[in-house]
Amino acid sequence: MEIVTLQYRVMNIGKWTEARVSLDVANVLAEEYSSYGWSTKIMFEQAAALEAEI
């Protein structure tokens, strides 16, 4: 399971809120939040994954 960071801004006001979730969950939440008109980002953490494999 790939873990990513979902970032979103409620009503596009204030700071970004972050949550670390699976990619599947991030995609569903990003789609829902975007339907509200909120800005969303999904950040992949490749460096951390590479370190874990070594």
Highlighted features:
globular, 54 residues, alpha+beta, 3-stranded antiparallel beta sheet
Shape: globular
Averaged pLDDT: 88
Helix content: 25-40%
Main sheet characteristics:
3 strands, antiparallel
Helix-strand makeup class: alpha+beta
Using the CA coordinates, give the radius of gyration: 12 Å
Amount of beta strand: 35-45%
List the total number of helices. 2
Tally of extended strands?
Answer: 3
Question: H/E series, N to C?
Answer: EEHEH
The main sheet orders its strands as 2-1-3
| Poorly predicted ranges | none
Gap between N and C termini, in Å?
A: 18 Å
What does this molecule look like?
The protein has 54 residues and is of the alpha+beta class. The chain has helices at residues 23-35, 46-53, and strands at residues 3-9, 17-22, 39-44. It has a 3-stranded antiparallel beta sheet, covered by helices on one side.
Task: Give a quick summary of the entry.
The chain is of the alpha+beta class and 54 residues long. Helix content is 39%, strand content 35%.
